[in-house]
Specification:
The chain is 43% helix and 18% strand. It has twelve helices and eleven strands. It starts with a helix and ends with a helix. It binds zinc ion (ZN).
Length: 396
């Protein structure tokens, strides 16, 4: 009976989550919370020579130092900077209370198969296989060192199979951006640190599920593998791993900041246009359209495989394009994603014009409209789209 209530409670919680969970966070990256896994009387994985809690602390402090040195406009907050125990819920709370723009939890892997090695980065979401679930279960077992964990984590019980399945239905609200930073980390591990790339994965991690910002959990290598333990314990290995995470953060910040700056400019420009026109009581989308067409052409028109659209609604059953809920918008398209029909307008080749369109859609009464991006019909984050476009424009 107790189990029933726990599961019921979790389902109620899930039902309260917003249907549209893919909003992107728009803004400059100014605060990062770095979370060294485990600590104090909770050692994490234990190798032949070292403990996970010491490696995660050493690597985390190095990541923070690189950021402070090279990106002075970023505030670095650690969930711990000494060898002490911090409960999982407090780690997320620190990030939420400081309104961090990104949460990075740093860990080391451990499995009974001692030949396994390599790096992987997780975001919150449903696991695709048993191995991913095992990683989450192992990391989540930290709560066994905490009091009242059933109450504290919405009934999550690391030993209950049902609990693990239901728990995977939670997703970070910023899944796209979490996936973007996760793949940047794995790119750096593979290309710069020359580590084996086991990929970007999803599983239900207690340390991530309440984060109100993009959040990742990095497994920097297997402490259970003798060679990798040696590497992770060495100064050189820690420097490589930390600088890879730093570089990924730097690239993520660059693309997010560009996005935020573009949005800011757009808002400024439209505020100016507004005051010049100053014609109250005539909401005139067509006039704004022609206004926009007179702007100088952007130099990214050749990147037509990347498009920005404005998403304004999602429903569980398909609605006809002339539905009154669509406020008379023309050329409405939809795509099906994670069990929902999602409706968009526009086919913009630049973020600027997408932001302008978003504004018109919002003025039409669809205030929750936001910009989404696609590459060859696959949904990617706008930040990733901007990064890809910039990459191509920079090339000679
Ligand atoms: Zn760990």
């Amino acid at each position: 009976m107790k189990r029933f209530f726990i599961i019921f409670g979790m389902l109620v919680l899930l039902a309260l989550l917003p249907a549209e969970v893919y909003a992107d966070r728009l803004g400059y990256v100014r605060t990062v919370v770095i979370d060294p896994g485990h600590g104090g009387h909770e050692p994490g994985a234990v190798g032949r020579k070292v403990k996970e809690k010491d490696l995660t602390l050493a690597i985390s402090l190095k990541v923070g130092e690189y950021i402070k040195e090279n990106l002075p406009d970023v505030k670095v907050i650690y969930t711990r900077d000494t060898d002490k125990h911090v409960e999982l819920r407090d780690r997320t709370r620190i990030a939420n209370e400081n309104q961090a723009d990104l949460f990075i939890s740093i860990h080391c892997n451990s499995v009974t198969n001692r030949s396994a090695y390599g790096t992987e980065t997780f975001v919150m979401g449903p696991h695709r296989n048993q191995a991913n679930l095992e990683v989450a279960k192992l990391e989540n077992a930290s709560i066994l060192y905490e009091d009242n964990y059933l109450e504290a984590y919405d009934g999550y019980d690391p030993n209950s199979p049902e609990s693990n399945i239901i728990f995977t239905l939670f997703q970070n609200a910023y899944l796209n951006q979490s996936l973007t930073i996760a793949s940047l980390v794995q790119d750096q591990f593979r290309e710069r640190a020359r580590r084996v790339d086991r990929g970007v994965k999803q599983a239900g991690f207690l340390v991530l599920y309440r984060a109100t910002m993009p959040a990742i959990l990095v497994e920097t290598g297997f402490i259970s593998n003798a060679r990798e333990e040696e590497y992770l314990a060495s100064e050189e290995g820690q420097n490589h791993i930390a600088s890879a995470i730093y570089r990924a953060f730097r690239d993520y910040k660059t693309s997010q900041d560009q996005l935020a700056a573009a949005h800011e400019q757009q808002m400024l420009a439209s505020a100016n246009t507004q005051s010049q026109l100053s014609q109250p009581a005539t909401p005139n989308p067509p006039a704004r359209q022609s206004q926009q067409n007179t702007q100088p052409a952007n130099n990214i028109h050749s990147n037509s495989d990347i498009v920005f659209k404005v998403q304004f609604a999602s429903t569980s059953t398909l609605m006809p394009p002339d539905s009154p809920e669509f406020m008379g918008l023309q050329n409405v398209e939809f795509y099906f994603h994670d069990g929902l029909y999602k409706y968009t307008v526009g086919n913009e080749t630049s973020l600027e014009s997408a932001a302008a369109l978003q504004e018109r859609v919002q003025r039409a009464g669809l205030r929750d409209a936001f910009v989404v991006a696609f590459q060859n019909n696959d949904r990617i984050s706008p930040a990733e789209a901007v990064r890809l476009i910039n990459q191509r424009t920079i090339k000679p």
